[in-house]
Write a structure and sequence with these properties.
The structure is a homodimer. By secondary structure, the first copy, chain A, is an alpha/beta fold. The first copy, chain A, has 2 domains: 116 residues, Rossmann fold; 194 residues, Dihydrodipicolinate Reductase, domain 2, CATH 3.30.360. Helix content of chain A is 30%, strand content 26%. Chain A is built from 9 helices and 17 strands. In chain A, the strands form 3 sheets. In chain A, strands 16-13-12-11-7-10-9-8-17 form a 9-stranded mixed sheet. Chain A has a 6-stranded parallel sheet with strand order 3-2-1-4-5-6, sandwiched between helices. The interface between A and B is large, with 83 and 83 residues.
């Protein structure tokens, strides 16, 4: 099978990550990299052609597909150029700055009949895939709440991410992943959304958000991220009527907790706590709480590209579908509107 | 100083708690207890007159004040009787089933010129008082988020609390405390509120809620309670731009965490996690996170009654003011409306 020849437009942080990953994949050959900043090209892999712009790369490189990892605001322009040059396209996330922009992208890629997908590789995160299996297999019964939390100590963001005019901010950077994961997990119509979006440390871009989404199937999801929330962790919680599943850490360390029996309506043993007597919130009787391991999964971001290869050769349907990417961008627009107005936004999605 | 003679109407769980507390207070004499259920009166303290109803107690007991600890739906009727009998009134929480009911209570108590307050004793909880001091003294800088969380393993609630027609459910039982604490801490006008309210294990009453309140001073508070949320804890988090304060447990165990310096906008050291490279959410460099102890407080629920005595003798203003109690009930009404409609509720309070 012939190798897929790929070029990378934008050889910054993610561009370098992609080059490193592609090195490990036999079915792909990295043939070119382009960046407007010569500094970024200094450590381009040996034998790879370097170009000072996407235009030049599209003219001069031998490529079947292009990975777009330029700053967010340039994605539309890059996708248009690549589509017209008939290249298959992997665009970094967020694909677009708005739903409107994304619709222009899908139009031009359809018009030119090129494969178009987005690098939503966090659908292959270990922590996420474990929780998705808990959800899909009803391991904690009927789910009433799902929490996805990401907290860090790093008040300041990096490079162009601190500039709104370049598409900076954490909602664009990580929000797009965390929302995509939740929509892909719950996969049900939404009822409404309410969100808080703040600049805590960064003057110009958001670095904290908390999003509550109520789905029509009775599940409520809460997605919270803080870059200056000083209990650094990547945490998940799924609460159901047959137990709770929890994770702390990208590696998916965690457990499922159940009660050995459900307490019936009883007078209730009165437990004295530091805050006086309580019947509902004292310590659990020994043996009441039972722990089980979480399911195991075996995934990596490399799988995103292995999947891309299969779809490139039409052996499987693309998993990151434009209509899904569009839905995430609709939610992101709604988050900004809710945060601005203080109103809940109805979502007929 | 003459002792305040107090009677207790409703000698169930809370009635007994009150009797135990009053025993420890010299300035108060428990003279009577009343309950419609003879079983409850069997262990009435020696020397205390027992009555089979509030009416009988108001006729036959020597009382200056009455504590009302009957089921929630009977509070209005009890307050009306006690006010007309010119007794000072301590009513259990929630004072009323609705704002409308509470307005009737304040009317009748004003009319009869009797002291009327509500047993919102959790303003004297250790965990709460510590966090209030962190907030009041700006110990973590400008606050952007406050979380108050209460999770338990006890899916089923007790006694009359499982019956909606008696005013059961966790929003009435604990919600009223958690909301009162937050309003008393932030003490600023509210912008809007969005809430989720569910029956997870109990068929007939709510046993899970999550309430997001955005205040006009820029603080967002989240109040969450789950009776079948299997990481049992009483947790607080206050996030500010100068650090984070956190508590786990009614006794107030916790810490303040700060960063030794704020990271400026830099290319950012790339940290490899189980979920690929990240610059914002990798582990903290050694020494970056600095811990400090939380402030110490010395409070107990007994203080509620010591305060009541001082206000009874007009030595200090009552701290649980009817207008504050009313505001909490307005928020609870808004919580139910938001949960029912999926809309955010604007609160001009």
């Amino acid at each position: 099978m012939e190798k897929i020849k790929i070029g990378i437009a934008g050889f910054g942080f993610m561009g370098h990550c992609h080059a490193d990953t592609l090195k490990t994949i036999d079915e792909i050959e990295l043939t070119a990299v382009a960046d407007t900043n010569p500094e970024q090209l200094k450590d381009a892999p040996a034998g790879v052609k370097v170009f000072k712009s996407m235009e030049e790369m599209l003219k001069g490189a031998d490529m079947d597909a292009v990975i777009i990892s330029t700053p967010n605001i340039t994605h539309l322009e890059m996708v248009e150029m690549a589509a017209k040059a008939k290249k298959a396209i992997i665009c970094e996330k967020p694909a677009a700055m708005s739903v409107k922009e994304f619709d222009q992208m899908t139009a031009v890629t359809k018009e030119n009949n090129v494969l178009f997908t987005v690098h939503q590789q966090r659908r292959w995160d270990t922590d996420y895939c474990i929780m998705k299996e808990v959800y899909d297999k009803n391991m904690v019964g009927d789910v009433y709440v799902i929490k996805s939390q990401l907290y860090g100590f790093n008040g300041y963001m990096h490079d162009w991410h601190v500039f709104p005019e370049l598409g900076g901010g954490m909602l664009y950077d990580w929000g797009v992943h965390l929302i995509d994961q939740i929509l892909n997990m719950v996969n049900a119509p939404m009822e409404s959304l309410y969100a808080d979006l703040k600049n805590v440390i960064n003057e110009n871009v958001d670095d904290y958000f908390n999003i509550m989404i109520r789905f029509k199937n009775g599940v409520t999801a809460e997605i919270e991220l803080g870059t200056y929330y000083l209990t650094p962790k990547r945490a998940w919680f799924i609460g159901g009527n047959k137990g709770s599943a929890m994770i702390d850490g990208f590696a998916g360390e965690g457990k499922i907790v159940r009660t050995s029996h459900l307490l019936q309506n009883v007078p209730g043993k009165i437990t004295m706590t530091a805050a006086g007597p309580t019947r509902s919130f004292g310590p659990a009787a020994p043996g009441l709480l039972v722990e089980e391991p979480l399911p195991q999964v075996n995934v990596s971001h490399r799988d995103y590209f292995l999947h891309f290869i299969r779809s490139y050769y039409q052996k499987e349907e693309i998993m990151i579908k434009p209509e899904q990417v569009r839905k995430v961008l609709c939610v992101m627009d709604a988050v900004r509107e809710s945060a601005k107005t203080g109103k809940a936004i109805s979502l007929e999605l």
